[in-house]
Amino acid sequence: MKSQSIKKLYTLHSWVGVVSAILMFVICFTGAVAVFGQDELRNWANLDTRGDVSVAPEIVEKIVADAVTQIPEAYHNKLQINMPGRFYGDLVLVFEREIDTNDGHIHDGYMLRYDITSMLLTSKANGSVNDLYSESRVSNAADFIVRFHADLHLGTVGLILTGALGLVLMTSIVTGFIVHRKKLAQLFTFRPSKSFSLMLNDGHKQLGVWGLLFHGVIGFTGAFLGLATVILIPAAAYVSFGGDQEKLVETFLVMKEPELSQEYQPTPLAQILTESTLDGEQTITFVNVLGLNDANAMTYVTVTGTQAMARNQLRFYDKNQFVEQTGNFSRLEGVSGGVLELMFPLHFGNFGGILIKILWTILGLTTALLPLSGLMLWVERGVTSPVPRFRPQTYDRLNRVLLGSCGGVVLACVTVFHAQL
């Protein structure tokens, strides 16, 4: 490639890093922490879910049978059982119905909460399902960091921003790979004793070359997870379903509504729950029963802890008979389902057990150090240059913002767990 093109790519690489480095570090560092945020840190930070919070399948079945007698029949066709452990310290049942109005679909329901020690009903509430979940679910330090990594607590704007940062990371990787042509030499070149500038230069290149594949995976999956719900799904709905996003979701939804027979047949919840944990490696998080106690009932058991690449696995029971265990997207035709299934586990390392998570955290920290070392190198070169591009005060202020922001987010992550405990 011509030297003029290399210079242009180097300029692009430098300025992309300067503009995005601090926010990139914040997102990547919290992402490294969020690898353990779904289970390990959440349980560590919550006394209610640290110990054994399992409930015997027979007790769950009995509690559901008693709850049915307290809930109007219109709500019986859709039941979600939230097992204690991952999101709740208690056993939570949600009976739901859907009402068609002029303003669209309204989902209202009853939420019943049971203490896992006494198995007694502790609360019962009725209202919008979304409101019931938002009011009852207690947030903690792990949830705060996981959501901060996902959208900076800014909602849709945050998702777009983090998704765009995934694209920025990919751009930096590609331009950096092209610009630095002596890649084999850079794999083993590290001169910390020469000068601070050389140490930063060598460290930045080694982080980029050794972690090239991982950084690319994180950038691509991060861009997809950030932009999918905000841009990709509406775009697909517009192209294929005339803008109807609900129809798009319904078409590809794994959980299909059954045609109820109106013939009474008890749903064997105890048997289904027992079968779903026979191998001892799977943990049940949710159970969705569509058509409770109907002969055509369908039951979907969400299990985690499998060695499969999917974030969660769904065990599907049709007419109370086990049919298959599959991922959320595995039923999509072609390779698209498998590709979508890989996005979340590849981004967070939720496959292969604790060793993979440790590896993902270490590699995630190297991804965080990549923009940090690059910006520090840019500042160092500007300060020591005989003809600096900016005034010394500009570099000094940028350096203060850099150290304060990046050091601050590390301190904040430690402090937030200490504050909760």
Index terms:
single chain; 421 residues; alpha+beta; 54% helix
Structure characterization notes:
The chain is elongated. The model has no long low-confidence stretch (mean pLDDT 82). It starts with a helix and ends with a helix. It is built from 14 helices and 8 strands. By secondary structure, it is α+β, with helices and mostly antiparallel strands. Helices cover 54% and strands 15% of the residues.
Helix content estimate: 40-55%
**Beta-strand level of the residues, as a percent range?**
5-15%
Structural class: alpha+beta
DSSP summary: helix tally: 14
Query: Low-confidence spans: pLDDT under 50, at least 5 residues?
Result: none
**Pattern of helices and strands:** HHHEEEEHHHHHHHHEEEEHHH
Instruction: Calculate the mean pLDDT score and round it.
Output: 82
Gyration radius, to the nearest Å? 25 Å
Largest sheet: 8 strands, antiparallel
Number of strands: 8
Distance between the ends: 56 Å
Main sheet: strand order:
4-3-2-1-5-6-7-8
Shape: elongated
Task: Provide a brief overview of the structure.
The chain is an alpha+beta fold. It contains 14 helices and eight strands. It has helices spanning 3-34, 40-44, 57-68, 129-136, 141-151, 156-179, 183-187, 196-210, 212-240, 245-252, 269-275, 336-348, 354-384, 392-420; strands at 78-82, 91-101, 104-114, 121-128, 283-290, 298-304, 313-318, 321-326.
Task: Compile the SSE list and pairings.
Blueprint: H1 3-34, H2 40-44, H3 57-68, E1 78-82, E2 91-101, E3 104-114, E4 121-128, H4 129-136, H5 141-151, H6 156-179, H7 183-187, H8 196-210, H9 212-240, H10 245-252, H11 269-275, E5 283-290, E6 298-304, E7 313-318, E8 321-326, H12 336-348, H13 354-384, H14 392-420
Antiparallel strand pairs: 1-2, 1-5, 2-3, 3-4, 5-6, 6-7, 7-8
Helix pairs in contact: 1-5, 1-6, 1-13, 1-14, 3-11, 6-9, 8-13, 9-10, 9-12, 13-14
